[in-house]
Design brief:
By secondary structure, this protein is an alpha/beta fold. Helices cover 64% and strands 14% of the residues. The chain has two domains: 102 residues; 96 residues, Glutaredoxin, CATH 3.40.30. Helix 1 runs antiparallel to helix 2. The radius of gyration is 50 Å and the shape is rod-shaped. 15% of the residues are buried.
């Protein structure tokens, strides 16, 4: 804005000196023409100044953008590399911990053996290649005592042996199939569910193992 005003003033003064120097009489019409000429000159000079300044500004802007972009990219690479490294380390630690926990859980549940003590389902018999079905009731003291002993000695269940706890009060069809008439009865079956042997009463896991064929 200051440059524009200065150019206009210069143009007006130049026009005035030109008129006075040529002895012309300043009339209202002449003043208007002079003002128009001064404005035209000022506009042209302003365009030139703006064009030059604009070109310089653009070049300067390009240089700044290039420098800034390079700095930003370098910083971005550094941040990404650090983030990836931290994420990788964290992932390794997480996976490692998960594997350790899974291993400890399996060892804790099965110990040195590989047998299991779980609730009954028909599918588990075939999947296990046979099982010992424990017909137990919650109201049966000897059933609860046996269950506590097994839970305390799960690590002693031999590999390949599956003990399935069947509810004496609800598994009526299963009881009928194997001729079970009282709680705390054990039935050993093969993979197809056929009876191998049957007995009543095993107060401990050790006692049950002595009966298994």
């Amino acid at each position: 804005m200051k440059i524009l005003l200065a150019i206009i003033v210069v143009a007006v003064l130049a026009g005035g000196y030109y008129i006075i120097g040529n002895g012309q009489k300043i009339t209202e019409e002449t003043a208007k023409e002079t003002a128009a000429t001064a404005t035209e000159i000022a506009t042209q000079k302003t365009k030139e100044v703006v064009t030059d300044s604009g070109a310089q500004a653009i070049e300067a802007g390009k240089e700044v953008i290039e420098q800034t972009t390079e700095e930003v990219m370098d910083k971005g690479k550094e941040v990404v590399e650090n983030t990836v490294e931290k994420a990788t380390d964290q992932a390794k630690e997480t996976v490692g911990n998960a594997v350790v926990e899974a291993g400890e859980k399996v060892l804790g549940e099965q110990g040195s053996g590989a047998g299991t003590f779980e609730d009954y389902s028909a599918e588990k018999i075939a999947a296990s290649g046979g099982a010992v079905i424990d017909f137990a009731a919650d109201w049966c003291p000897s059933c609860r005592a046996f269950e506590r002993d097994v839970e305390s000695n799960k690590q002693d269940i031999p590999q390949g042996l599956t003990i399935l706890r069947a509810d004496f009060d609800t598994e009526l069809d299963l009881r009928k199939k194997y001729g079970v008439t009282q709680q705390h009865t054990f039935v050993q079956v093969d993979a197809s569910g056929e009876e191998i042997t049957k007995w009543v009463g095993s107060p401990t896991l050790e006692s049950l193992l002595s009966k298994v064929q």
